[in-house]
Amino acid sequence: SPSPILRSMSSQRVDAPFFEYYDSLGGEFNGLVGVEGALSKAQSSLKTAHSKHKETTGKIAKNSKKQKHHTTKIDNCEHHCFYSSSVLQPNLWCSGGVPGRVERQQAKLAKLREVEPPLVAQEKQLREKDIPSLEHKVSSLEDANNRKDEVSKIRHDMFEGAVAGAPSPLLQALQAAVGGWQAALNLELQIQQGMQLVSAKCREAQSHFQSAQGLLHAAMQTNQQAQFNNVIDGNEFVEHMQQHHRNQQVQTAQEAVIAGAQTLQYAFSQIPPQAAQRHPQAAAGLGDVHLPVLHQAGMGDHALEIFGGDLGDFIAGANMAHKIRSNLGIIQEALAVISHQIAIIDGLNVAIAIAASQRQQGLHMEEEKLATEKVRIFGQLRATALGASAPLAIPLPAAPVAQAYTNEVAATIVAEGVHQQALHKRLSELSVANVAQQPAPPTAQPVAQPMAQPVAQPVAQPVAQPVTQPVAQPIAQSPLAQPVAAQPVLAQPPPPAAQDFVVQVR
Fold this sequence. Notes:
This protein is mainly alpha-helical. Helix content is 69%, strand content 0%.
C-alpha cells in the first residue's frame, strides 16, 4: 500500500513546484551521501570507547582492592598481637622480621598509589568527554541517515505517484508482462523445490537397497560357512547358529527393501503434477517402477535342516544359496531401475534450472523496460510542467517494446550458467551407465523402463527488442516547444505490487 507521505501527496498537482521540490530533495540527498560509512565508523569508535572505559574501571577496582589488601597487612604488622611479633613468626627471621615485611608492603602500596591517578584521569576523560561526544556524534549521524532514507522514500513516492497519475498504454502492458514473467518464474521455482525433495528421497531409497545388497552378500558367506561345517561334520550347534544367522540376514535385507520401496513410493507421491506438463520429455518414464520381493527360507528348508540330517542340511543350504543368488539379481535389477529414475530426475532438475534461469532473465529484461518507460513518462511530465524554464533537455530514452510471457519466447533466451552440450553429455553418460548396470540374466520379472532423453533447450538468440538503460537525469523538452493546454496531472499512488503466484501441489 502507498506510504502516508504518498497518500498525502496523492492530490498534489504535478507542476513546476512539484519538480522544484523533487529536485531540492535530490540536492539534499546528494549532500547526505556517505553518511552510512561515517555512522558505521562512529559506532565502532563508540563501542571501542565503552570497551576501554570498562577495562579502565576494572583496573581501578583491582588497584583499589590491592591497596586495601596491603594496608590491612601493614596495620596487622603494627597493631596485631600475633603478626606484630617477629619472634612468633619464624618465616620472617631471615627476611628482616616484621619491620622488613612492613617495608615491603609499603613499597607495594606506594607503587599502586602511583599508578592510580592516571587511571582515574583516563576513566574521567572517557566518561565525561569521549563517550558523550561520540554518543552525540552517533545520534547526529543516525538522524542524518534517517533523513537520507526519508528523502529517498519521498522522492521515490513522488516519482511513482507522478507516473501512476499519467499511465501510458505501454506502461500498463509492461506491468502486465512483468506479472506474467514473475508468475512463470514462481511456477518453475515451485516445481524445482518439489523435485529437490523427490531427488533426496530417491537417493535415500537407493541407500536402503544398497544396504539390502550388502546383507545378502553377508548371508551368502554365512551360508557357505554353514555348508562347510556340514561337509566336514563340524559342530552341529555352530552350524544351526549359522543357518539361523543367515535367515536373519535375509529377513533384514527384505526389511531394508521394504523401507526403500516405501521411501521410493513417498518420493514419487511428491512429484509436482506440473513437472510432467512443463517438461514432458525430461519427465518421461518418471515413477514407472516395479518393486521386488525377496525369496525367504520356507518351511521345507527349515524341516530339512532340522530333521534331514547332513543330507538335509546340504540340500537346504543349496536351496538357500540359489535363493540368495536370485535375490542378489533382483536387488541388482532394482538398483539399476532406481539409478535410471535418479538419472531422469537429475535431467529433469537440469531442465527446470534452465527454464527458471530463462524466466528470471526474461523478468529482468521486462523490469528494465518498465523502469525505462517510467523514466520516459516522468521526463515528459517534467518537460510539460517546466516548459521554457527547464534545464537543457536530455534526449528521452527510446520507448521499449513489451514482451508478454509465452513458453516459446522463454525458450529463445539462452540460460546463464547452463551449457547445453554439457547437459546433453551428462544425460548420455547417465543413460549408458544405467544400461551397464542391468544384469545379463534377469532374475525377476522384466522391468521395461523408457530411457530418459537428453533435453536440449533451444539456444536461439532473444527476439525481444533491446532494452535501453534508464536515464535518471532531469529531462525537459526544447525551450521552443509549444505549451500544452492539457488537464493538470495529479500524482497517484502507485498500483500495488503483483502478488506472488504460488502453486499448490496436490
